[in-house]
Amino acid sequence: MRLLLIEDEVHLREQVTQQLQNQNLTVDAAADGEEGLYLGLEYPYDVAVIDLGLPKLSGIEVIQKLRAAGKEFPVLILTARGRWQDKVEGLESGADDYLVKPFHFEELSARINALARRASGWANATLQCGSISLNPTSQEVLNDGEAIDLTAYEYRLLHFLMLHAGEVLSKTELTDHIYEQDHDRDSNVIEVFIKRLRNKLDPDKTLNPIETLRGRGYRLTLPRDH
Amino acid sequence: MIIKKLSLSKRLLFAVSFVLTAFLGLSAFSLNNAYLASADSAQQKRLKNYIYTILTAADFDESGQLLMPDDLAEPLFSTPNSGLYAQIVSGRQIVWQSPSLLGRFIALPEHPGASNEELSTLELESGVKLLNLAFGIVWENEQGQEFAYTINVSEDLNTINKQKAEFQRSLWYWLGGTGIMLLIVQMMILRWGLRPLHTVAIELNAIESGDQSRLSSDYPKELNQLTQNINTLLDHEQSRRERYKNSLADLAHSLKTPLAVFRGELESSSDISHVKETGHEQVDRITSLVDYQLQRAATEGQSSLLAPVSLGEIIHKILDSLNKVYQSKQIHCQYDIQRDAFIHADTGDMYELLGNLLENAYKYGNKQVHVTVLNQLDIVEIRIEDDGIGIPDHAQQDIIKRGKRIDTQVEGQGLGLAIVSDIIDAYQGEISLKTSRLGGAYFTVQLPNQ
Question: For domain A127-220, which CATH number applies: 3.40.50.150, 3.40.50.620, 1.20.81.30, 1.10.10.10?
Answer without folding.
Answer: 1.10.10.10
